[in-house]
């Protein structure tokens, strides 16, 4: 029981509130409390009820509305393994719905660019020729994801629940301009692709209304043309070092977002008389 709760007990306003709640939740027992006839069992139930009703003053916020600021980058044949190489600024907005202290659903709209070039010094394979090749794409990413908190986040009866790491995964639809020749002769066409995002993050409750965090997610796509800019490139961006041809393998392109999140919380979770026992 916190110091604030003891102060409320000494305050007649809290007693009025408590006995009013007691009538609603405990019926006849609540009436006997109002009349002053408190047995040992009555006092015990009263103490438990005080703890339970404290959930109302620490209720988890249902909805978080916030923004994302960070970086985006590409992983593919022109950058096989170096994370954050050729990063570009990324910005977005998000809406998070807290299902429980462990689980949350999140929708986000994020915009960022990806780029790459040939040859890449970090690649151990020798370039096939002396030509150079570059590309750059703007990605508009709409994602729906689920989050799992390792620690019940913002729980009123668990110490140090203001900070938690989490895992996240889901599905995303991304708009970008793909090189594509059609009957009208266009070679830069707006298309949509499906990707599978997954990653990790951490979030921290600063106040009842403000949260901050950091998140890093990778997007696995099912295409291998994010780096294609012409029908006859001097370098084949899908296999610039002839590695996949040699080993008879194939890999699709990836892209990633990493950055910080600032969000504002609203809409308290509705609680019942036994809500304090629901820790998860």
TrEMBL record:
<dbReference type="Pfam" id="PF19573">
    <property type="entry name" value="DUF6089"/>
</dbReference>
<keyword id="KW-0472">Membrane</keyword>
<dbReference type="InterPro" id="IPR011250">
    <property type="entry name" value="OMP/PagP_B-barrel"/>
</dbReference>
<keyword id="KW-0812">Transmembrane</keyword>
<feature type="domain" description="DUF6089">
    <location>
        <begin position="46"/>
        <end position="273"/>
    </location>
</feature>
<feature type="transmembrane region" description="Helical">
    <location>
        <begin position="34"/>
        <end position="52"/>
    </location>
</feature>
<protein>
    <submittedName>
        <fullName>Outer membrane protein with beta-barrel domain</fullName>
    </submittedName>
</protein>
<keyword id="KW-1133">Transmembrane helix</keyword>
<dbReference type="InterPro" id="IPR045743">
    <property type="entry name" value="DUF6089"/>
</dbReference>
């Amino acid at each position: 029981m916190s110091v604030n709760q003891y102060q409320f007990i000494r305050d007649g306003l809290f007693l009025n509130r408590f006995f009013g709640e007691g009538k609603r939740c405990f019926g006849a027992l609540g009436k006997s409390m109002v009349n002053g006839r408190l047995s040992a069992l009555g006092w015990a139930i009263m103490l438990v009820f005080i703890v339970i009703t404290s959930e109302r003053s620490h209720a988890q916020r249902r909805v978080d509305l916030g923004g994302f600021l960070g970086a985006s980058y590409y992983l593919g044949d022109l950058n096989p393994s170096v994370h954050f190489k050729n990063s570009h600024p990324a910005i977005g907005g998000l809406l998070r719905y807290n299902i429980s202290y462990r689980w949350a659903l999140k929708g986000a709209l994020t915009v960022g660019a990806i780029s790459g070039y040939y040859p890449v010094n970090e690649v151990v394979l020798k370039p096939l020729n002396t030509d150079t090749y570059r590309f750059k794409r703007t990605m508009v990413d709409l994602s729906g994801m689920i989050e799992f908190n390792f620690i019940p986040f913002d729980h009123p009866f668990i110490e140090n629940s203001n900070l938690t790491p989490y895992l996240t995964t889901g599905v995303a639809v991304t708009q970008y301009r793909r090189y594509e020749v059609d009957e009208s002769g266009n070679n830069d066409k707006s298309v949509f692709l499906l990707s599978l995002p997954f990653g990790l993050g951490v979030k921290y409750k600063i106040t009842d209304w403000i949260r901050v965090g950091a998140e890093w997610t990778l997007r696995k796509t099912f295409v291998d043309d994010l780096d294609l800019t012409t029908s006859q490139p001097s370098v084949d961006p899908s296999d610039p070092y002839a590695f996949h041809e040699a080993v008879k393998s194939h890999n699709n392109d990836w892209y990633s977002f990493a950055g910080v999140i600032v969000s504002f919380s609203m809409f308290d979770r509705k609680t019942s008389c036994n809500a304090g026992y629901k820790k998860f």
